[in-house]
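Re: that chain you flagged

S.,

Sorry for the slow reply, it's been a week of failed gels. I finally had a moment to sit down with the sequence you sent. For the record, here it is as I used it:
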Amino acid sequence: MITTETGVYLQFFDEGESFDAELPPIGPFELLIVRHNRIIGDREHIEHDMLGSGSVERWLEAELELRRALGDEPGGVKRAQMRIRAPRGDIIVRFYDYAGDEAPKVPELGPFYAITVGKREVRADDKLLAIRSTDMSPWTLTDAVRPGIAGINKADFSSPLRSPNLPLRRAPLRRPDRRRKDRRRSSSNGGPCNARSTSRAPTRRRTRRSPPRTSTSFSASTS
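Prediction finished late last night. Pasting the structure tokens below so you have them in one place:
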């Protein structure tokens, strides 16, 4: 999927769904608010990846599923779960009451790479954040990622991008192994090689020596 560096992406899916039937992620969203079985969110622009067989039909179904979740289409969503992701892995989660947040306040949680929202639970990077008993019940938080918040009930939550006071977390970049290149260079040269050495070994000057002089005496005899 071709994505920008900012924004979160939303994907509707069913557990155990085959790859061919899976809907593509749609976005990007700057902010997603989940209220019961509805979502609130706006996109500044729409990104589509039209590669692959049947992708047009899946994109149309994904857009229709989004309209159902937003309440623009009747009938409600057809797939039971939602997955929220960000290319930079900087999602945070805020649990609160959308109609008017009351004490106790819940601090921001994250950052996370992905949020999975089911009918009865919310998970972040496979850690259980909250559960609920019915579709209209508030979310009951756990202490899986932060101690001291277990048992707090909040009706809604949102998944914005990284808060300015949270560090950015990214997957580590893989760098080429220089030692392997050094071994190959060493084996090809027939001896050890230091790739990082920039100084040259001192060279010995060769002085050309002239052959030793020999004295030759001539004797002249006169008759």
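What I noticed first: Residues 8-158 form one domain.

Talk soon,
D.
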